[in-house]
UniProtKB/TrEMBL annotation:
SMART domains xref list: PCRF
Protein name: Peptide chain release factor 2
Subcellular location: Cytoplasm
InterPro entries from the UniProt entry: PCRF, Pep_chain_release_fac_I, Pep_chain_release_fac_I_sf, PrfB
Residue ranges constituting the Prokaryotic-type class I peptide chain release factors domain according to the UniProt record: 247-263
Function: Peptide chain release factor 2 directs the termination of translation in response to the peptide chain termination codons UGA and UAA.
Source organism superkingdom: Bacteria
Coiled-coil residues: 55-118
SUPFAM superfamilies recorded: Release factor
Sequence similarity: Belongs to the prokaryotic/mitochondrial release factor family.
Positions of post-translational N5-methylglutamine modification: 254
Lineage: Bacteria, Bacillati, Actinomycetota, Actinomycetes, Mycobacteriales
Keywords on record: Coiled coil, Cytoplasm, Methylation, Protein biosynthesis
Organism: Corynebacterium atypicum
Amino acid sequence: MSFNLSFDESADIDDLRSALSGIEKVMDPSSMSERVRELEEKAADPSLWDGPDYAQQVTAELSRLQARLRKVEGLAGRLEDLPVMYELAADEEGPEAKELADAERASLRAAIEELEVETMLSGEYDEREAVINIRSGAGGVDAADWAEMLMRMYVRWAERHGHKVDVYDIAYAEEAGIKSATFVVHGDYMYGTLSVEQGTHRLIRISPFDNQHRRQTSFAEVEVLPVVEQTDHIDVPDQDVRVDVYRSSGPGGQSVNTTDSAVRITHLPTGIVVTCQNEKSQIQNKASAMRVLQAKLLERKRQEERAELDALGAGGNASWGNQMRNYVLHPFQMVKDLRTNYEVGDPDKVLDGDLDGLLDAGIRWRMECQRDAAC
């Protein structure tokens, strides 16, 4: 480690080694490799698909473990090569090779920190895709505009990370913005990552809808649910739901299509209402709406079970409270998470999808809460 490395470079590489070693202790690559071999044997058995639900579970777990194993092994290889990059840079004239080595070190740190956060996503549903519901709250037209800004923020974040987004339903407000929206973010660990966004988001700004340019406070509610899988067994009897169909519409009531393809499902025992109008087919919209309803019922079941455990003294308070983050655009510029105290001085970047710092802080905060039963 002594060759051609400054003290800071050497210390930083040692720090990266220590961080990756800690990750490997949690992930246990040798056990993961053994599990991959077991799943590969099952996947190679033609009789596996006699039970499609179980087969899907096996192949999904295999794919997920293979991806995580490749990631940790790839990082270990890159970290092993990093000192060699610095050694080669010292033998070359010009700063280019040294700059490449420095860039690789920075990239490695970001990748290792990202994987470190991933190891904290060990909840029952954390590996699932996420259903996000956004609803405008107090604040009139500003709140509707704020709800649409939040939706754009999450969609931009997903696009930055290469995650596909499917919009199931949008209810547009009359003047501007949206009353509500439901969309799915696809990808592994999306629920575990985005669930820390659940709660009330508050915006403080000069209202663009007020001709007197007064400061306005607006609220929007974000709900994050895990996508329901076939193995979850959330039964919804036909007699418990009412299905209404209607014509899809866009902003200003403009017709999106000319058939009654949009679907509204009302769960009669709970009063939960779900709508979907993104597909041209009524059958597809009904299936999508039913998935969202099942996700809401699954979350309701989890909350009831959690409340029972809390009542028995089996855990701390799992509620994070309503207002969880402030976005201030006037009289100063700041985004502050009220749970973690994590601050960002550039709201525009956050609203354009730069959420990683806030998400990482939220995940670490949640893990501390679970460990200390303090939140």
